[in-house]
């Protein structure tokens, strides 16, 4: 984002989204465009990303396109037993996803009335959809529940790593069979299973060790 447009983003945060996010237990430092919340060991972040003069919206001044992030350190530690590249974030994705489709947050000008109109839409969206989603992902139990619910899975980007993270969450709960079931459903066929031999071998070993 061009620095000359940062005051617009800060205006939206200070006058609209700060209230909602702070009520939800999030904090924002100084002139940052990011909100943070830590619950237990779970770290959550809302990055209010802004793109100036986006080429995909002709004539637009600013496109506000926030990202949400959630990090479960225990899951990543456990996932090291299954995959070599565990990444550094459990969930990172734009927040405007199905089933929460909305009109893109585009500013064509910096006129105050236009900024206020878009800012009010963002505030409502965060309050009605995003804070509840963050609340569903406060802990590992919530993460597992999100996987179990078919509707919940539509709220999270289903990357390859996602399934290893869910399997790791089940391991942390001591539910090895369910963890293996996650991988068996997602990775079918000898070629893909060979690629992830490390993960399947881990579960096979653990299940043999059970009394």
Radius of gyration: 20 Å
Helix/strand order, N-terminal first:
HEEEEEHEEHHHHHHH
User: How many strand segments?
Assistant: 7
The poorly predicted ranges are none
Proportion of beta-strand residues: 5-15%
Oligomeric state as shown: single chain
End-to-end C-alpha gap: 57 Å
Mean pLDDT score: 90
Strand order of the largest sheet: 1-2-5-6
Approximate helicity band? 40-55%
Structural class by sheet pairing and helices: alpha+beta
Q: Any chance you could write out the topology, listing elements then pairs?
A:
Elements (H helix, E strand, L loop, with lengths): L5 H18 L10 E6 L2 E6 L2 E3 L9 E3 L2 E5 L1 H7 L11 E4 L10 E3 L4 H25 L3 H9 L1 H4 L6 H13 L3 H11 L3 H6 L1 H13 L2
Antiparallel strand pairs: 1-2, 2-5, 3-4, 4-7, 5-6
Helix pairs in contact: 1-3, 2-6, 6-7, 7-9
Walk me through the structure.
The protein is an alpha+beta fold and 211 residues long. The protein has one domain (3-156). It contains nine helices and seven strands, in the order H-E-E-E-E-E-H-E-E-H-H-H-H-H-H-H. The chain has a four-stranded antiparallel beta sheet with strand order 1-2-5-6. Strands 3-4-7 form a three-stranded antiparallel beta sheet, covered by helices on one side. A hairpin with a 2-residue loop joins strand 1 and strand 2. Helix 2 packs across helix 6 and helix 6 runs antiparallel to helix 7. The longest helix has 25 residues, at 112-136. The protein is elongated, with a radius of gyration of 20 Å.
């Amino acid at each position: 984002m061009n620095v000359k447009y940062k005051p617009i983003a800060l205006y939206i945060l200070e006058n609209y989204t700060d209230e909602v996010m702070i009520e939800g237990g999030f904090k924002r430092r100084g002139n940052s465009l990011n909100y943070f919340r830590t619950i237990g060991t779970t770290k959550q972040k809302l990055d209010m990303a802004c793109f100036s003069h986006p080429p995909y919206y002709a004539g637009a001044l600013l496109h506000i396109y926030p990202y949400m992030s959630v990090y479960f350190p225990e899951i990543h530690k456990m996932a090291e037993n299954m995959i070599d590249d565990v990444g550094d974030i459990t969930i990172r994705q734009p927040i405007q996803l199905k089933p929460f489709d909305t009109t893109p947050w585009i500013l064509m000008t910096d006129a105050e009335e236009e900024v206020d109109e878009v800012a009010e839409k963002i505030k409502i969206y965060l309050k009605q959809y995003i804070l509840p989603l963050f609340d569903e992902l406060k802990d590992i139990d919530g993460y597992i529940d999100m996987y179990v619910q078919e509707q919940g899975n539509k709220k999270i980007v289903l990357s390859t790593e996602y399934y290893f993270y869910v399997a790791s969450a089940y391991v942390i709960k001591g539910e090895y069979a369910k963890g293996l079931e996650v991988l068996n459903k997602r990775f079918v066929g000898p070629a893909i299973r060979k690629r992830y031999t490390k993960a399947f071998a881990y579960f096979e070993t653990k299940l043999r060790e059970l009394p």
